[in-house]
Amino acid sequence: MAEQYSGQAGFLSDGNPGRGCLVPQVTITSDGDSREITEEDLEEEVNGRLRRKLSNSSISSNGSSTAFDESEDDILSDNETKSKGIVTLEHLGDSVDSAEQINAWWKLKTIVSCPLVTSQRRRLSWVQLAGHKGSFKAGDEGSILKKFSENEKLCFERLKEDALHSFVPSYYGVVERDGELFLKIKDLLAKFDLPNVMDCKMGVRTYLEEELVRARVKPKLREDLYNKMLEVDREAPTAEEKKQKAVTKPRYMQWRESLSSTNTLGFRIEGIKRGETCKTDFKKTRSKEDVIQVFKDFVEGNKNITNSYITRLEDIKQALKASEFFKKHEVIGSSLLFIHNHTERAEVWLIDFGKTTPLPDGQNLDHYRPWEEGNREDGYLWGLDNLLQTLSSLARE
């Protein structure tokens, strides 16, 4: 499939918006043909039906975030997830039998993909576990298509010339398939056989300050989130919430984070896939000792893999400190994706930028200071330091 490059504005060598970075914009049609997506196409689609249908985030010109209607997770209750197991399985092209489906591509919470292991590796199938249905589709060999988000698109474009570019998935532009827009990005697991995957959500909160403001101005009671709260702790709701049988989304998210290591360590484990087993029940994994044990099980006590992860995280930390993008963005709901396999190959990548938003001009974050409403601090580097300490403790055992 041929890709055509549009004259889309990119970034200068200093990382600021400018000209000179061409991003491929390609439309995939049902017969395999492609056409260039122009800036006019994007503006028309994003401002029209497809934006309303697809985009779960956007930013305003002054740097504040808007239209974050839903979080990346909390779409299904735990009981729904457990009963269904596989939320959705999409077949694209050749069909696969049930045995192949078992080894299909998985997404943990934020819908991470894993490769379908077959002798020919010809076609892909997708499984989403506890995530948004329809958020991912198979792309060309070595790529995946992620549901379009204007906010995430802008982040990928800004990251192309940033110090972090080597630690985020390569971005190949916007594609259209079956009338919907997707971001085409590198498949991080394409070169792994039978990978083990862990998704760690970084920071001291996974909700935007704007969500708190909206909830106060126009509170929306959610019965589904109330029921999810009961599944974890039947005594958690207040007397008023029990009477209403509903809670607001910020209330639920703040409560949930108070239970997990998001609150105590600045990161939390969202999900793990090892072999044919997926686990996402880490809501009460709070203490450093508990987290160390989870990592120990994940790497099966392999110190070579552990040390490879430590080295990669140290490199990421240095890149974050040098990154202009990182200084000027509030990083919410983003994850570190850990990948290794039996060959002891191990990698860590920054993923999920749908809720990463730019700051107003002149404002920077240090990502260490405690969060107070209004300062927009996310605690990312504090969480990364704790993550490094956790793995270092494991390596010394």
Automatic annotation (TrEMBL):
Region (Disordered): 1-75
Catalytic activity: 1D-myo-inositol 1,4,5-trisphosphate + ATP = 1D-myo-inositol 1,3,4,5-tetrakisphosphate + ADP + H(+)
Pfam families reported in the protein's UniProt record: IPK
Gene Ontology cellular-component terms listed: cytoplasm; nucleus
Gene3D superfamilies named among the record's database cross-references: Inositol polyphosphate kinase
UniProt cross-references to InterPro entries, sorted A to Z: IPK, IPK_sf
Gene Ontology biological-process annotations: inositol phosphate biosynthetic process; phosphatidylinositol phosphate biosynthetic process
Enzyme Commission (EC) number: 2.7.-.-
Gene Ontology molecular function terms on file: ATP binding; inositol hexakisphosphate kinase activity; inositol-1,4,5-trisphosphate 3-kinase activity
Alphabetic keyword roster: ATP-binding, Kinase, Nucleotide-binding, Transferase
Coiled coil feature spans: none
Tree of life domain: Eukaryota
Composition bias type Low complexity, residue spans: 55-65
Family: Belongs to the inositol phosphokinase (IPK) family.
Protein name: Kinase
Source organism: Sinocyclocheilus anshuiensis
